[in-house]
Structures are given as C-alpha cells and as structure tokens.
Specification:
This protein is 19% helix and 28% strand. It is α+β, with helices and mostly antiparallel strands. Strand 9 and strand 10 form a beta hairpin.
Length: 184
C-alpha cells in the first residue's frame, strides 16, 4: 500500500476522533449524512458511546406503534391524565423510550406529582433527551423528545422536588419499563 495514503487515512481518523471528543460535551455528533429530516445522525451518551439515531418513515412508525403511541410519540399528543399504565408503577427498574428502547429515567428518580402523569426529578442520561421550546398552548414550555428516535415524551417544569427542582412530566405511553432487582 502507498505510505502516503495510509498516513493520510490515519490523520483523517485522528481528526475525526478529535472532533468527536470536542463535540461530546454538546452531546451530539454531526455527520455528513443527510437523512432529510435532521442533520443529527448520531449522538454520544454520557458514557461516551456513539448512538445512531433511528430514522423511520411515517408508515414505518405507524406499523411499529399502536394508535395512542403513534399519536403521542410521533404527533406530539398527550394521553389523558391518570390513565397511563406506568403512573402508579413503584417497581425498581429503568424507564425506556417506547419508540426505540433508549434508557431515559430510573425508578429512583420517580415521584408522585399529583398531575396524572409519571414524573421524575432527574434523567438517566442528559444526552438521551432533547429539549426544545414549544408554544402549542400559546406560551413557552420545554418539550422533551428522545434523542435517539425523536419521539415526544412530555415536558419539563421547574416545580419539582430537590435536589434538581425539576419535574419531568412524561406520558406513560411514551415509555416502557424494564423491571430489575438493582439498576446500576
């Protein structure tokens, strides 16, 4: 093989690793791939793992999710208060995104908010949840979506308990629960 080619390839690989490390604090790696829906094709979790973003067509999501899951996760709907199957869940475990399985919340961060939706005062990995501002009700709210699949989860408010003071108000239908004896 040509030594110049090998050297150039090594320099390029090193440069890409440097860029990835610099982007790690932001939680998102940008790829030159264009999916047509977002320029984020990868993100980095809190452990430094690179996670590929899930991109499915609307028809693929419809075949993967039931009607309510599709309405909430893909169309930013909300389930009725006090109807979710995870509202009263008190088991030890991990709450994951129903759209893609990404770990989002731990049971030790769940609390009873009285709002009718599962509420958490902290997230498992801050890079797993994307925050944006929506004005759907005529005033600004911080919307939460899964970074891996873009599924709508709910909203975060600043009226939660200590130590964070935050209330992640999440639709049960956006979550799955993995019961464990002890979650690391």
């Amino acid at each position: 093989m040509n030594i110049k080619f090998v050297t150039a390839a090594c320099i390029l690989a090193y440069s890409l690793v440097q860029v990835a490390c610099q982007s790690r604090n932001a939680g998102v790696l940008k790829s030159t791939e264009n999916t047509g829906t977002s320029d984020k094709t990868y993100f980095v979790n809190k452990r430094g793992d690179t996670i590929r973003v899930v991109v499915l067509s609307d028809d693929e999501w419809k075949s993967k999710l039931n009607d309510m899951e599709y309405h909430v996760l893909r169309k930013k709907g909300t389930e009725r208060a006090f109807t979710g199957d995870l509202l009263e869940n008190k088991s030890e475990g991990l709450y994951t995104c129903r759209g893609c399985g990404l770990p989002l919340f731990r049971s030790k961060h769940k609390f009873e908010s009285g709002t009718g939706w599962p509420s958490f005062f902290d997230v498992d990995d801050p890079n797993a949840i994307t925050k944006t501002t929506d004005y759907d009700l005529g005033y600004p709210r911080t919307e939460l979506t899964c970074t891996k699949c873009g599924g709508h989860l709910g909203h975060v408010f600043d009226d939660g308990p200590k130590p964070t003071g935050l209330r992640y108000c999440i639709n049960s239908v956006s979550l799955d629960f993995v019961k464990t004896e002890s979650v690391r």
